[in-house]
Write a structure and sequence with these properties.
Chain lengths: ~120, ~120
DNA sequence: TCCACTGTACTATTAGTCTTAATACACTTA
DNA sequence: TAAGTGTATTAAGACTAATAGTACAGTGGA
């Protein structure tokens, strides 16, 4: 499920965070499902458990998972995931619109172009 | 023009790169205009000239500026800036559409929402 | 030509982060 | 109880970011 890219200059724990954020927000991991344990994932990826723990701690802090001592780490529930999805779309939309406006592109121009993008990007 | 955020955990040179990319792509800096010299900007920001040089080197490598020995660093010309603008919008559009599709949001739903975003985001 | 400014290159040093390693402790469940 | 879980701590090595100092080469004006 998770693959580390050693050509990537970013730290390993950040890569893990990003991968899980994507899996969760895209619905690949359902709400409430269990993440691999700190130790087992460390063995899987041939890295140190501390690195996994750092990623999980951060994922909990930013509200993607929650942890239960002695049991494991779990994806937040579907209700919460929906919120995250909306937040993600809202944020990226706002950024893009800001850029478009600052470049002096009209809404109509942009919207038309976006239609093509929708065609181009396959499912 | 440039302000360093020391609360930001990213390296200083990356912040400088990002700031200039924005200034250039948003047209605040016109094509061909001269950037502050490595030394003068270093004094302005109270940081080391080497850090500025690292930022400028990277900005040249990624095609936002060009440098002339003994003269200074200059913003690429307007023709090139236009290309960059289009690239930036295209890339961010594609990313957003990918996200929207992966979340199962329909084009119509998204487009309607985007109308509101356009209203919200002032000029 | 001289001088001040410019970009560029290099080495050395300090500080901080990333990662690994090895323990240890508390909690859960079979 | 035993195995598996999360969590915390300390130490070490590798790497990067940033500073400091120096040097060299090109530009342009006095």
């Amino acid at each position: 499920m998770i693959v580390i890219d050693y050509k990537d200059k970013r730290p390993i724990y950040e890569q893990i965070i990003e991968k899980y954020e994507n899996l969760i927000i895209r619905g690949v991991l359902e709400g409430g499902s269990k993440l691999p344990s700190v130790r087992s994932l460390a063995i899987d990826l041939s890295i140190n458990p501390n690195t996994i723990q750092k990623a999980y701690t951060e994922l909990e802090r930013s509200g993607y998972i929650y942890s239960v001592k002695g049991k494991g780490n779990y994806v937040i529930d579907d209700e919460e995931i929906k919120k995250r999805k909306k937040e993600a779309v809202a944020e990226q939309s706002k950024n893009l619109v800001r850029l478009v406006k600052s470049l002096g592109i009209t809404k109509e121009e942009f919207m038309e172009n976006l239609n093509y993008v929708f065609e181009e990007v396959g499912l």
